[in-house]
Amino acid sequence: MSAMMIAGFLFFAGIVVFTSWYRAGNARVNTLNKLFFANRSLGFVLVGSGLLFTNINAASIIGENELTYTNNMTVMAWGVSSVVAMLLVSEFIMPLYLKMGIATTPDFLTARYGADVGRLVSVIFLVSYIFNLLPSVLYAGAVAFNGLFHFSDVCGISYPTVIIVLVWIMGTIGCIVSIIGGLKAITKLDILLGVGFFCGGILLPFFGLKYMGNGNIGEGLQALLTKHTGHLNGIGTSHDAIPFGTLFTGMLLVNLYYWGTEQYIIQQVLSSKDLETSQKGIALASLGKLVSPLLLNIPGIIAVHVFANMHNTAEAFPRLVSMVSPPFVAGFISAIIFVASLTTFNAGLNSSSTLFMLNIYKPWLQKRSKQVTEKKLVRTAKQFEIMICLAAMFIAPLIIFVKNGFYTYVQIVNGFFNVPIFTIMFMGFVTKRVPGIAAKIGLGFFITCYAFTQLVINTHIHFLHILAILFVLTCGLMLAIGKFYPMPVPYTLKLNNLVNISPWKNRYYYAGILFILMIAMFVLFSPVILAK
Questions:
Q1: Mind telling me which Pfam families this protein's record contains (predicted)?
Q2: What is residue 188's predicted lDDT score, i.e. its pLDDT?
């Protein structure tokens, strides 16, 4: 751990902290609308950067590079193929949300199926965030920092102890930023993170190739393209982490859920000025997803050439950064990971509080005819954020005991929540008479069957294919219930838009360009070109 590395970290982190403090000092967060939705005033750059960097965090940087190191470039499909889902969400789902003027996705379920279903899904979201999202982000950040700064070696402290200390430091800082600045402060950080992320995405591969070529970038690139070429293959077989067929089954469903239903993601879009702004923001985030392999996957490929064997493969990325980069650049990249962890963690905290306050706490107050001031509601929301932050910090260190790769663990656990919720959302979009009881039975059926296939028996079928099969079966079950026990009065959409809902006129041109670029990425990382 050199002085220059610390200087590089403080340089970028200092800019971010100062900006966050400055924004917080100039904008009092004294209403729920400001705390959760930035007064629905975000421009497309804020929306796009918020979407992208709420998605990209330490967990994805560490996890995707780990899977690229242990498998190959097939893992890039999580991000690159999401462009299709994002464009579909932009065209069909976001206009619906903005027309309804909803604040959370459970609001739609409440309107479509009834209050019980909305509350149930709110609870499922909260459980998912408390036990999976927030702890995994903190854990990944802690692993990255220990790999970069070697705290366990320098301080002579055990690895688990270092992870616990780092988790609590990051969680505390993240919680403070979230409760002081609200959503707008979080999205302001995302713009700075975007600049840092793409600088790091250029610098790290540059120094990695230079290290591989013993100071000669050309020789390093030659080695990358001629040795271990199997790792450059993004077209997965059944033996790979992401078989190519899953892009058209479970992965498409997971991405549709994530970009169109996940509360901490869509909250960025629901805070936009209007529909046109939200669609431009989604297009900007889609472009970012196509560039993101520079920092999410390419370092994992370089690590294959640098490290013959690693005991803890989760440290492939941080160990590579500290080995091949100049100290100042290594510190700069570590600050990027730190800020990336904060943005996702803060967004998760903010959305958890949104779900609790708007779908559980406020309805409870209204049911009891209790009148509470806006100031008291804001205080309660911030207290709830502190509570779930503490829970996440206690749970995060336990992830150290997970086997089969950290990122795979995150995605498999997500399967208990994501596609089941998307399934009942989808049926709510495309049907008018399927009742609330069908949504409850469908959720229970899906989650129970998925748990059985993951925890009890080994089906030898990829979990993404399992999700697709259960999606079809659950839809069939809900349709059958709707046929025999239909709603007496069909559901009708009620308009309550709070912003202008005129769509972006040029969206189809940009969508076509993004789709072509996505296909080009898969062709590039295939046996046709790079993986010969």
A1: SSF
A2: 64
Name the 3-class secondary structure at 497.
coil
Query: pLDDT over 70 for what percent of the chain?
Result: 93
- pLDDT tens sequence across 456-485: 888 889 989 999 999 999 999 999 999 999
Residue 185 contacts residue 24 (beta carbons within 8 Å): yes
CA distance 185 to 144: 24
Angle at 11 between CA 8 and CA 17, to 5 degrees: 135
* pLDDT at 403 (0 to 100): 62
Quick check: 317 and 334 in contact, CB under 8 A? no
User: Is residue 437 classed exposed, middle or buried when 0-12, 13-18 and 19+ CB atoms within 10 A define those classes?
Assistant: middle
- For residue 500, give the DSSP letter: B
Given a cut of 70, is residue 25 above it in pLDDT? Answer: no
* CA-derived radius of gyration, the chain: 23
pLDDT of residue 305: 93
pLDDT digits (tens, 9 = 90+) for 319-370: 899 899 999 998 998 888 888 888 888 888 888 988 998 889 888 888 887 7
Q: In this structure, are residues 286 and 514 in contact, taking their beta carbons and an 8 Å threshold?
A: yes
Other CB atoms within a 10 A radius of the CB of residue 399 amount to 22
Longest dimension (CA), the chain: 74
What is the rounded end-to-end Cα distance, in angstroms, of the chain?
Answer: 40
The C-alpha angle with vertex 64 and arms to 343 and 122, in degrees rounded to 5, equals 50
| CB crowding 145-182: b at 16 or more within 10 Å, else e | bbbbbebbeeeeeeeeebbbbbbbbbbebbbebbbbbb
User: Would you say residue 51 has pLDDT above 70?
Assistant: yes
Alpha carbons 71 and 528: distance in angstroms, whole number: 19
pLDDT of residue 29: 62
Give the integer Cα–Cα distance in Å for 371 and 249.
Answer: 48
Q: Dihedrals φ, ψ of 15, to 5°?
A: -60, -45
> Residue 374 — φ and ψ, nearest 5°?
-60, -35
Paired tokens of 102: 């909803």
CA distance 179 to 350: 8
Q: Decide: 421 and 261 in contact? Cβ < 8 Å.
A: yes
Q: 3-state class of 317 per DSSP?
A: helix
Phi, psi of 274 (to 5 degrees): -165, 180
pTM confidence score: 0.89
Distance CA 224, CA 207 (A): 13
Long-range contacts of 22-26 (CB under 8 A, 24+ apart): 23/181, 23/184, 23/185, 23/188, 24/180, 24/181, 24/185
Q: What is the DSSP letter of 419?
A: H
Q: Look at residue 236 in the predicted model and tell me its pLDDT.
A: 85
Taking the C-alpha atoms of residue 300 and residue 492, their distance in angstroms, rounded to an integer, is: 49
Residues in the chain: 532
Beta bridge partners of 272: 42
